[in-house]
């Protein structure tokens, strides 16, 4: 690995002096940026069956993907990871024996289906690189035909025409940090660029004339930040592009066409604290969903422009509603008792069938197909629960903790009866606690069926998942509280979780031991908890976490850089704040044991982020361990690697906290 040494001098911010340690500055990302000796040195090794067997049993408990049905409702296609890698499967009838239609070691998912039901458009990735290609396959199975799969290029399906012949896809094959939109003919195999220019572009929707079936207008979206977009409308007849919404502002919008051209459905938090769905016509916004103290998380209108389905994020629980497009009045949906989450998936192009997923704390997701014509709900796919009684799974309890400035942070907590400390059954000593921080940072920990949490509960831990400021689902003020330099004001939420637990979760006068874990931004949170807030946690595990925000922004994949800068800050303008927020800045404070797990092919958080902090820890002789998976990217996707990743984590916490 090539190294360039850089000395960063001290700087003064708010009268406090910080020194970024002298260290090797890496460049690049992916396995090719590494010396093979590094991969060999930090490669995972086998674990004892006593460690892996309980994990394998829990991972066997799973549901297939929601899937999509053919227009006639006779077949369903879905993804399933039962072979160890996500592949595509087919059912030739309700609860029939599943037939595997794709294979190999590369993750393959369904991107779409042609309206005539004859072909699948598939997306396939190689070893977690997140540079997927598009493929065509008959719905009867058989060999995959490459549409486009280029090294280092992200190719993504955007739209399938009603003629079942024309598709549109995006790819960053011209510029790594920009998308070009292509029209592709499935018969002639020819692609034609229809839009280009700088930026991350996609097709938000297409307006098709209901009488002629012609594509008349396109909605093009361009990302201007991690949470903001601009929208433009392209008129096919006049070949003109007109700005629509979002220009000269940094606002979050999601847009689709309404019933007629000139009518738009807009999801935005612009006019209230929470996202709400509006009708936009003649430059006027009219709300069409109730004003709630909860976000409308997503919406979709069927291609026949008859119904709008929208989901509500109710503090980590998901609800689904339906309204008619002609009057926006509610449409009845099937009811599901005791459901933590109700999801809608794909609706067939003819508008007749919609897939619905239902999840509880005690069972993996059940998948249904709802027939809007007959009002019949049918369960197509059965979940898999071998050797496990999921009725014994621990349900999340919604609690809160109070920060130093008085803010109450919502937190889902999983406790087994053996870890409940009550006056009737007092504990001799408290169970150790694992605090898990979600990724994003615009993510959210939610209730529901949680195999990962259950593994820790089974191992004798209390498992807690805070939704600190910056998390999704609690309004735009909460979501934006950690943007850029403002992160300095709320990063203490990580330390305050441990302070609260040590004070309030004692048993018999004994303070519990606490571990911190997370992936992606959660991995960053774990590193910050172990460094800047050293002493708050007794052990930590960082999975694909950021150790230096400057080197991360300089080396992450180009298509992500503009989006992450809007979240974390500009490497030039906000340099001081980024250094102050980087775990490596406080590496000299780390004293407690630390485990770092990383995928070599990660395009989001480069593998260099893990190596650079591990080298510092080794120099300082701080107890630490680094594990690099050579065939993974941003987290483990292969089952065998998932077992090892979780196994290393559990074994590490058992050793240091129990």
UniProtKB/TrEMBL annotation:
Superkingdom, natural source: Bacteria
Domain Peptidase S9 prolyl oligopeptidase catalytic, first and last residues per copy: 449-658
Pfam families reported for this sequence: PD40 (PF07676), Peptidase_S9 (PF00326)
The keyword Protease belongs to this UniProt entry's keyword annotation: yes
InterPro entries named in the record: 6-blade_b-propeller_TolB-like (IPR011042), AB_hydrolase_fold (IPR029058), Peptidase_S9_cat (IPR001375), WD40 (IPR011659)
SUPFAM superfamilies: alpha/beta-Hydrolases, Tricorn protease N-terminal domain
Keyword Hydrolase included in the entry's annotation: yes
Keywords for the protein's UniProt record, in alphabetical order: Hydrolase, Protease, Serine protease
Name of this chain's protein: Prolyl oligopeptidase family serine peptidase
């Amino acid at each position: 690995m090539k190294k360039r040494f850089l000395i960063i001098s001290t700087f003064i911010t708010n009268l406090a002096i910080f020194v970024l340690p002298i260290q090797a500055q890496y460049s690049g990302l992916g396995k090719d940026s590494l010396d093979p000796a590094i991969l060999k040195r930090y490669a995972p090794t086998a674990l004892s069956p006593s460690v892996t067997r309980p994990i394998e049993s829990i991972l066997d408990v799973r549901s297939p993907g929601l899937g999509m049905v053919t227009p006639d409702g006779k077949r369903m296609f879905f993804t399933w990871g039962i072979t160890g890698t996500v592949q595509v499967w087919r059912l030739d009838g309700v609860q029939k024996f599943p037939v595997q239609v794709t294979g190999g070691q590369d993750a393959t998912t369904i991107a779409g289906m042609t309206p005539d039901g004859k072909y699948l458009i598939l997306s396939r990735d190689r070893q977690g690189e997140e540079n997927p290609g598009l493929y065509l396959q008959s719905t009867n199975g058989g060999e995959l035909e490459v549409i486009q799969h280029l090294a280092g290029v992200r190719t993504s399906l955007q739209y399938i025409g009603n003629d079942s012949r024309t598709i549109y896809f995006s790819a960053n094959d011209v510029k790594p940090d920009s998308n070009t939109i292509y029209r592709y003919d499935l018969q002639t195999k020819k692609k034609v660029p229809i839009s280009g220019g700088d930026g991350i572009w996609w097709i938000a929707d297409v307006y098709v004339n209901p009488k002629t079936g012609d594509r008349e207008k396109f909605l093009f979206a361009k990302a201007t930040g991690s949470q903001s977009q601009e929208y433009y409308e392209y008129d096919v007849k006049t070949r003109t592009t007109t700005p629509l919404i979002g220009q000269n502002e940094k606002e979050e919008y999601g847009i689709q066409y309404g019933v007629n051209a000139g009518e738009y459905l807009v999801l935005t938090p612009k006019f209230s604290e929470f996202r709400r769905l509006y009708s936009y016509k003649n430059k006027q916004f009219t709300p069409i969903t109730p004003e709630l103290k909860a976000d409308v998380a997503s919406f979709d209108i069927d291609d026949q422009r008859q119904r709008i389905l929208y989901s509500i994020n109710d503090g980590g629980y998901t609800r689904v509603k339906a309204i008619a497009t002609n009057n926006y009045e509610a449409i009845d949906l099937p009811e599901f008792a005791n459901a933590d989450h109700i999801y809608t998936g794909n609706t067939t192009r003819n508008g007749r069938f919609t897939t619905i997923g239902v999840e509880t704390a005690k069972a993996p997701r059940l998948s249904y197909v709802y027939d809007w014509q007959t009002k019949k709900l049918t369960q197509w796919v059965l979940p898999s629960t071998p050797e496990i009684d999921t009725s014994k799974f621990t349900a999340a309890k919604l609690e809160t903790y109070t920060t130093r400035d008085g803010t109450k942070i919502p937190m889902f907590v999983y406790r087994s009866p053996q870890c409940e400390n009550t006056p009737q059954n007092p504990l001799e000593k408290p169970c150790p606690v694992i605090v898990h921080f979600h990724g994003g940072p615009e993510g959210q920990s939610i209730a529901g069926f949680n195999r990962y949490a259950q593994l820790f509960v089974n191992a004798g831990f209390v498992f807690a998942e805070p939704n600190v400021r910056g998390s999704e689902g609690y309004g735009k003020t909460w979501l934006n509280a950690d943007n850029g330099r403002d992160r300095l004001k709320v990063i203490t939420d990580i330390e305050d979780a441990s302070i609260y637990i040590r004070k309030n979760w004692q048993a018999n006068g004994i303070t519990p031991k606490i571990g911190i874990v997370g992936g992606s931004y959660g991995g960053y949170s774990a590193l910050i908890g172990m460094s800047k807030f050293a002493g708050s946690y007794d052990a930590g595990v960082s999975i694909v976490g950021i150790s230096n925000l400057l080197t991360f922004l300089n080396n992450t994949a180009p298509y992500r850089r503009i989006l992450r800068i809007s979240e974390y800050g500009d490497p030039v303008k906000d340099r001081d704040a980024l250094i102050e927020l980087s775990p490596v800045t406080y590496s000299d404070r780390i004293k407690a044991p630390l485990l770092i797990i990383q995928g070599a092919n990660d395009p989001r958080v480069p593998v260099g982020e893990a190596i650079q902090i591990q080298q510092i820890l080794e120099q300082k002789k701080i107890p630490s361990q680094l594990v690099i998976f050579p065939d993974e990217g941003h987290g483990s996707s292969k089952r065998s690697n998932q077992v090892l990743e979780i196994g290393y984590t559990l074994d590490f916490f058992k050793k240091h906290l129990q």
